Amino acid sequence: xxxxxxxxxxxxxxxxxxxxxxxxxxxxxxxxxxxxxxxxxxxxxxxxxxxxxxxxxxxxxxxxxxxxxxxxxxxxxxxxxxxxxxxxxxxxxxxxxxxxxxxxxxxxxxxxxxxxxxxxxxxxxxxxxxxxxxxxxxxxxxxxxxxxxxxxxxxxxxxxxxxxxxxxxxxxxxxxxxxxxxxxxxxxxxxxxxxxxxxxxxxxxxxxxxxxxxxxxxxxxxxxxxxxxxxxxxxxxxxxxxxxxxxxxxxxxxxxxxxxxxxxxxxxxxxxxxxxxxxxxxxxxxxxxxxxxxxxxxxxxxxxxxxxxxxxxxxxxxxxxxxxxxxxxxxxxxxxxxxxxxxxxxxxxxxxxxxxxxxxxxxxxxxxxxxxxxxxx
Length: 377
What we know:
Radius of gyration: 20 Å
Number of strands: 13
CATH topology: Creatine Kinase, Chain A, domain 2
Order of helices and strands: EHEEHEHHEHHEEHEHEEEHHEEHHHHH
CATH class: Alpha Beta
Shape: globular
Distance between the termini: 52 Å
């Protein structure tokens, strides 16, 4: 199978942000996506918002951006219009990994035939995907580089997951997880960690085998946590839960852009970027989904561990020169703000520990998105 890759000579960015619609008064999830999308289309945002699996969800999409600031400004314009549309309907958007108490059985699937085909093929594992995330695309210069970079990025996958974790609640129950969304999504057969592939040729052969075996119908059904996107010429990071403020989205996008740029420079200078052992990636992903920012990560094949917070601080410090070149140093530094104020899961649990209800969690998360300011400890 031949798969063409569109070279992307700059570290351009694209961000996708899945938002849910809730009732402003009750906090309940509302299946109003088609109506809101219709108004957004009339307002000129047809290319910036689209359906997702459930009618309660709208995905906001940037155009191709050169900088993190451009990407978040692009999202911000669409979000501002979406908030105006929602206000007229008594709705509010928010961006979290899961709604705290909504039950997937009660919500309508979007009419797109693609989603009907998915449900027919996957049944229960797909039907329960009332989960929401943020995806970041970063441009990569060649098909050979994108395989190396995909493999190497698995080392920092747990950092992205811990920073974004915002799904402690599932069907009204505190799961004990920082990211219950992660475990729900892993129920799909082509979701989860990417296989470590040697080169683009092996990627093509693997996709061809999946299609001949009728495991997938197109590359769009490969839902790895990190995957090459041949049409866009990007590596796509898909491991993140919904991230509830644009500042947090910018921080995560900056980290992604800086990491890919540093890897491109290493390869251009004759070096290589290595993939960590698969068993450490798998264990570290579990630890990040369970413990979030308080996780201890395995840092070498011998089993040495270090606090995720320390690993992340060291990583951010090492990326400052790259961030300065890319014009995203301020956004990169905002990663440290997430560690200080807590991720979405921490903030939701803080509300509950202070005596708040699940409905209070929804209302405060909606306020965060509107104000672009997180609830502090």
